[in-house]
Amino acid sequence: MTARLAVAVAIAVVLSVPSRIAAQQVAFATTALSELDSATAAAVLREMGRAQSRGLPLQPLVAKVREGQIKRAAPDRIRVAVAALAARLESARAGLGDGSNAAELVAGADALSAGVDQATLRAVRAAGGSRDLAAPLGALAQLAASGVPVKRATAMIVELLRRNAGANEMLAFGVAVETDVGAGVPAEESAVFRLRAMEAQGVGSERVTVTAPNGDPLTQVPSSASGGGGAASRPKRRP
């Protein structure tokens, strides 16, 4: 048996899922792990086995291996990164609940990596109830990673959940702030501006009050009450 075939067999045992999905996952995982040295591949397979036994999604772990390979990371760093991701996935599930789906756990793990804690994940779950939280958690991770203080970022995401903002709106919010920050706009200032713009476009039916970076309250008025006037497309970059 060749080394590549041995890896494929081991992965097939670990990925005990329906046949069509299993075939796709085995092919992807085999390509990734067969490019590692035998010791690292064995360590990653053990980590995948432990993750499976805990009911965690395995595909993000394989994707982490591929990410490390693309970045030409040392094998030991890949192994450590996979183990760390598995730990975050488990921590995310502890915060979000056992019924969380794979996409929610991955987004929760990303949020934890950005500095969010389990208590925050529980607050987001409480606000979102039974709705899918992958997009809100993804937006929260983007806001935190962009530099918006976690407490402020969480308050904004929770408010948008309460106002039934859609998944696309959530994701667009996070991407817009990330883009603004890349253009030199302070993160919190951008987040406040973007939240105001969402309100002006009619997200929700109630007023939203947030705090500006200088501490002043900012009340957003729905577009129906403001004569339909729209906000500027981007906050001004500070000189």
Quick tags:
239 residues; mainly alpha; two-stranded antiparallel ribbon; 11 helices; disordered N terminus
In short:
By secondary structure, the protein is mainly alpha-helical.
How would you portray this structure in words?
A hairpin with a 5-residue loop joins strand 1 and strand 2 (217-220). The protein has 239 residues and is mainly alpha-helical. The model is unreliable at 1-9, 17-23 and 205-232 (pLDDT under 50). The longest helix is centred in the middle third of the chain and has 22 residues, at 75-96. It has a two-stranded antiparallel sheet with strand order 1-2. Helix 3 (38-53) runs parallel beside helix 5 (75-96) and helix 8 packs antiparallel against helix 9 (150-162). The chain is 65% helix and 3% strand. The chain is built from eleven helices and two strands; from the N terminus they run H-H-H-H-H-H-H-H-H-H-H-E-E.
Major sheet strand order: 1-2
**What is the first-to-last residue Cα distance?**
64 Å
Overall 3D shape: globular
Radius of gyration over C-alpha positions, nearest whole angstrom: 21 Å
SSE layout and pairing:
Layout: H1 3-14, H2 19-33, H3 38-53, H4 59-70, H5 75-96, H6 102-113, H7 118-128, H8 134-146, H9 150-162, H10 167-182, H11 187-200, E1 208-211, E2 217-220
Antiparallel strand pairs: 1-2
